[in-house]
Structure formats: structure tokens, C-alpha cells
Design brief:
Layout: E1 2-7, H1 28-44, E2 48-52, E3 68-70, E4 74-77, H2 88-96, E5 101-104, E6 116-119, E7 122-127, H3 133-143, E8 149-154, E9 165-167, E10 172-175, E11 189-192, E12 204-206, E13 209-213, H4 217-225, E14 229-233, H5 236-239, E15 250-253
Parallel strand pairs: 1-2, 4-5, 7-8, 10-11, 13-14
Antiparallel strand pairs: 1-15, 3-4, 6-7, 9-10, 12-13
């Protein structure tokens, strides 16, 4: 079975952390409805969705991908780069504890799950405003005994690594090359996002389906013409909080 952990939209989402976007009003009921549609889509694909309750004290709590990295053998509980978000890790760790052994990153390392992209036994780790070199080093030390390799990647133009590159298959990615150092991805087949849609690289692969926001129609056409099966969802209110489609769930086999 495949399980997805999610969390409802906080009533205080308008106070979320922002790095690259200007703050604009968020329609909270509409954002919550869009997130419910996201959860319903995961359910429609056969995933078991465990939805944590929204928490007014956690404006960014919706983004459950950031506090943890879940692998087949273990879950790494992150020390988030945004200090105001670190309390999110407690409830995410509690939700994961029945399914995985937990390992914790320690100070002074910072790491957010949005900066980690897995291809096989390689974890590409973005070095960004939220994830530092020490966080990447600790991740590598924790996972090396399990046969994983952690590859640091410089991120310069966006919030997280997966804002700029995401897997389409076991050997292909969708990317915006201008936002990250692409040197480490030379062994992969790279599909470039249209220049008119620079933020479109954040897509979520679940089995043979690629999920993406409906706000990037040119990228959807590109993916479909390249042979991928694509579903798009409206997440316009969530995007005002710098959301993508990967950040709102933690998906793993149980």
C-alpha cells in the first residue's frame, strides 16, 4: 500500500513564510477546498491518505514534505531552515513513527524536504536559503550505511531544489536550468520547462501519473506530447504561499 501524509490548511496560512513571492491576500476557504481536491486526487489513485488536522499555530503546516524525508528503511526528521517552522516537525514525526525508524538532523544543520530529490539510491540535496551544507553532510552520514549517496546541488533562483527540478521517470527530469547548478544531472534525460512558465518544474510523479498545477498549460502540453500521462489541479490560492504539488504530501510505501 502507498500512504500519503497530508495536513489541512491552517487558518493562519496568510502569515506563511515567503522567500521569493510578494505577499498577496489568500482566500483561506478556497485554499482549503483546493487542498481537499488534492487529497481527493491522491485517494483516487489508490493512496491511503492520513490527513493531520490544521493548526493555527503552524501557518506553513500544510507543507508536510519539508519536515521529513521518508525512505524505505528510515525517516529523517529535518531541522527546518525557517526557524518559525521548526515546530511542524513534531507532529509529522509522530505521524511517521508507526511506519519508520526515525533519525534526526541536529544543529547547526538545516534541511527542508523540498530540497531533496530522489532518483534510485541517489538523493540530490539543494543548498538553498533553507538547507545548508551541514544539513546535506548530516543527511549523507545518516544514509551512507543504507547505501544512499547524497549529492549537494547549488540552488540560486528559487525556494527549494524541487521548485526547479523533479523526476518524470527513473531516468528523466523536468527542469528549469537557470535556477540550479545542472552539472550533477548529466546522466539524466532533461526536459526543459517553457521559458514562459519558469516555475512549472515542480511536478509530482505517482506511478505512471504526473500531477502538476493547472496554471502551466504549456508545460502540460509539452509533457503530454512527450508521452507522459498528466493530471492538473487548480492550486492558485496555495501558490500564493509558494506551494507546489510536491510539498503538500509525504508519500511512501507501507
Amino acid at each position: 500500500m502507498i500512504t500519503a501524509i497530508t495536513r489541512g490548511v491552517s487558518p493562519s496560512i496568510a502569515s506563511c513564510q515567503l522567500e521569493y513571492l510578494a505577499r498577496t491576500p489568500i482566500d483561506v476557504p478556497k485554499a482549503a477546498a483546493q487542498h481537499r481536491d488534492y487529497e481527493a486526487f491522491l485517494t483516487s489513485l489508490g493512496l491511503r491518505v492520513i490527513s493531520l488536522p490544521p493548526d493555527e499555530a503552524l501557518p506553513d503546516g500544510l507543507f508536510v514534505e519539508d519536515p521529513a524525508i521518508v525512505l524505505d528503511e528510515v525517516a529523517i526528521v529535518c531541522r527546518l531552515g525557517a526557524e518559525s517552522r521548526r515546530a511542524e516537525a513534531v507532529s509529522v514525526a509522530e505521524a511517521l513513527s508507526p511506519f519508520r525508524r526515525l533519525r534526526w538532523l541536529r544543529e547547526p544543520g538545516t534541511l527542508e524536504g523540498g530540497d531533496v530529490m530522489r532518483i534510485g539510491k541517489t538523493l540530490y540535496c539543494g543548498i538553498s536559503r533553507r538547507t545548508n551544507q551541514e544539513g546535506a553532510r548530516q543527511l549523507g552520514d545518516l544514509l551512507k550505511p543504507l547505501g544512499y549517496t547524497v549529492v549537494p546541488v547549488a540552488v540560486s533562483g528559487c525556494l527549494h531544489l524541487k521548485s526547479a527540478i523533479c523526476p518524470l521517470s527513473d531516468d528523466a527530469v523536468l527542469a528549469n536550468r537557470s535556477w540550479i547548478d545542472m552539472e550533477s544531472f548529466s546522466s539524466l534525460s532533461i526536459l526543459d520547462v517553457p521559458s514562459e512558465e519558469p516555475a512549472a518544474a515542480n511536478v509530482l510523479r505517482i506511478g505512471e501519473t504526473i500531477l502538476m498545477p493547472s496554471s502551466f498549460p504549456q508545460t502540460r502540453d509539452l509533457l503530454e506530447h512527450s508521452g507522459f500521462r498528466v493530471t492538473s489541479l487548480e492550486i492558485s490560492e496555495l501558490q500564493k504561499a509558494e506551494a507546489g504539488v510536491t510539498c503538500s504530501s509525504l508519500i511512501f510505501k507501507t
